[in-house]
Amino acid sequence: MPDPAAPAPPMPRTLAELESARLTLALNELQAALPYTLYPYFGQSLAASTGRLAPELAGAKVDVYNANVHLLRTHGIAHLGRVFDSGQMAEIRRHLDGCPCFAAHVATKSDGVERTVAECATLGSQGSYRLADLVQAPHLIEFANRDDVLSLMETYLGCVPSIYSMNAFWTFPDRPALIPGLQTYHRDYDDFRFCTMFIFLTDTAPGDGAHFYARATHRAELVERRLKAKAPDSAAAHLDALFAKLAVVDDTAFEALAPQVETVSGPAGTVVLEDTFGLHKGEVPKAPRLLAWVRYGLYKNIANLTDKITPVPRRLVAGRIPDTPRHRYINRLIIEP
Fold first, then answer.
1. Furthest CA-CA distance within the chain
2. Which end of the chain is more exposed for a tag (fewer CB within 10 A), N or C?
3. How do residues 200-241 score in pLDDT, each as one tens digit?
4. Contact, 267 vs 206, CB < 8 A?
5. Which residues pair with 334 in a beta bridge?
6. What is the rounded distance in angstroms from the CA atom of residue 192 to the CA atom of residue 301?
């Protein structure tokens, strides 16, 4: 029997919101049930439907021969370089230093207790910040909404993007074991099509806080081509294992993919775009590492739901990003429209 004293779950305010929530859940359940080989077709359908239903939200797309678009499509990764200078990084860090930290990879999955970074380091492998504190950090939300960034994302995704997640998290050194699904090879199954912007908030170097990305593993046909060249008789079995969420990278698969593994590092302020459906993993740092992400996708997807992301009040970004129907749509999943 339900507890009569328990608060009722919040109800959508309108029938339109109810319908939107219903379709979101249906799409997320569909993604979980479908084979990965069908993701590109559903991604294309969702992108096309967004363009048909809301053409007025579209922005200028970059040239289809743009180098970063080409790199994302063929390699799954594009480097934007050091975007933030040392002064901007100092402002971002000064803001976050004044914010509470939460002992989890994502704040909403923590115990909810506000702690210092040092206290979080004594409790586990990671610490993170609230969404409300991140959108108020200097420079980050502005860069995520910069016209050239949105145009690049719109061209890669095929429609006006939806920012569905924003996070910043510490990874602490000297842990007894690797973090499964973070420091072992894995794929993100956030959406049918999506892209992650990583922003290095501390210096990272090979052997100290870098992460690894296996180029071209975001596309099944490219992975299959390499496997068939290396182990034609077992390519199909290896392909299914490599596209599991916690990917199984055995010796044969690793030998086939090793030439494509890139060590991703750089000074604080470096920005990298990655299709994290491709195989990737973090490295155990020697000193605490702080990394932020902004994720762009097609709709209110499974990652947005499971991370319990609730849009923050619009007043927190007043005057910092354009107040247009396009930007309200793009940010609606993290900032109240």
1. 62
2. N
3. 999 999 999 999 999 999 999 999 998 888 878 888 888 888
4. no
5. none
6. 9
